[in-house]
Write a structure and sequence with these properties.
- This protein is α+β, with helices and mostly antiparallel strands.
- The protein has two domains: 3-194, Nucleotidyltransferase, domain 5 (2-Layer Sandwich), CATH 3.30.420.10; 198-340, Exonuclease ExoI, domain 2 (PX Domain).
- It is 40% helix and 14% strand.
- The protein has a five-stranded mixed beta sheet, with helices on both faces. Strands 9-8-7-6-10 form a five-stranded antiparallel beta sheet, sandwiched between helices.
- A hairpin with a 7-residue loop joins β1 and β2.
- α6 (170-184) crosses α7 (186-194).
- The longest helix has 17 residues, at 428-444.
Length: 463
Amino acid sequence: MKMLHFYDALTVGRSSSEGQVLRFDSASLTEGPAAADTTYIQVRDDVFIEPAGIEYTELYDHALNQGVSEYEWSRQIESLFLRPKTVHIGLGSTSGCDGYIRNALYRCLSLYPNTSLPRRVQFLDITTLTRAIHILRPESIGWDLGAAVNNDFQLRDRLLRMPEFEDENNAKRLVKLFAHLTSVAKKLVSFAMEYAAPDRSKALLGLDNGALSDMASVNPCVVIHQSIPNERHFGVFMAIAVDMSYPDIVYLADLSCDLTELCDPHTPSLDQLVRRRPDQVSAPIVRLNLSRLPFIAPFATIRPEDAQRLSLNIGKVNENIELLRGADQMVMRLLDEPIIGDTRMPADVDYRMLAGEYHEADRNLIQRLHAADFAKWPELLPQAHDNRILELGRRVLLRNRPDLLTDSERRLWKGKLKELYCGANVTPDRVESILKAAEDSVKVAPGMKGPVSHVNRLRRLLG
């Protein structure tokens, strides 16, 4: 029997590579009531938090020093997110906390995949599901969501504020929200559940074992996700290529666009046909990451009344389907186009999760590291073939057991932490101004745990 796992997180930091999860709400559901819990995670020293203004954020009453270490938490959630026959259900997760969770696992040397989602596990984002119901079956949902339906963060906030789903644990709110969506749009929700995995999305798109060799078997599909660059984040598409480096990334042709240039072998460059902004609606090529859990359904899901309401020209869509069916030369050409080239990323190891999966020998080493005491890590880490493991492991020690490293390494780390806040110019005046900004937040919100713990943290890091 499948387990439904609902989750939500409070995050901090400028990006998922630099920040972290601070609170993790989780609720597991099989046949009985949902079993829920909340885990608090201590903020890492190398996470930047603005010195001023914490009292105006979700951190205003959150003690930054409470909970387990990020490493301890990563060991708990690795087994949870790798559990087979489980559907993990978040709210706005693909635009929000999923990146923070995956980067935490990567930073802490997890065996969770770096570049894709694990197989035999499914994922669903309730914001994408809600948007799909709103677009395809608006008579079912009964909510006036307004402009919020077009933005994951606004839609998440709107749904969490609905009084009928109130609960102090956000994951339990999602249990109630999901039950409501199932009751009003059972068929569509069941379909979304069945195909909530990248390999199943590829099957819907008509890819052969995840690959595309010709256009004969490719299926026109409805695709809905925040990352679709148009106003409603929706369209009817056909797959035209699969990324060579990241197989969960596909390139789609928008069937509402003029595809003449795309199918013309004499078009000088296909790169100019890639849509990179929502206002480029005439550019027909759209990049889609299936690991971000788009809603995908057969073209026939759109009823005639839906097409009229959505201003979808079915005749033009059908013409473009036939045009693409005869454009096999385009498939071969796209293999050589720069739009499917390698993704550039910074050199710092914290940003290099997508640089590839670990080979078997390194995966075995990671298992040995986690089975050993931290005291054994300095002698085990140099055995890694992938240099990322050596540096990530060293940073795990700097965050958890700095006493196991050299004086020089500890000094460099402390300098890096000061540089986060002071830049290269670490002067007493600069430190004083940063502390004053944080102390002013305490005066604005006296007694609130967030500002007080933030001041204490800064004094420790910059003292």
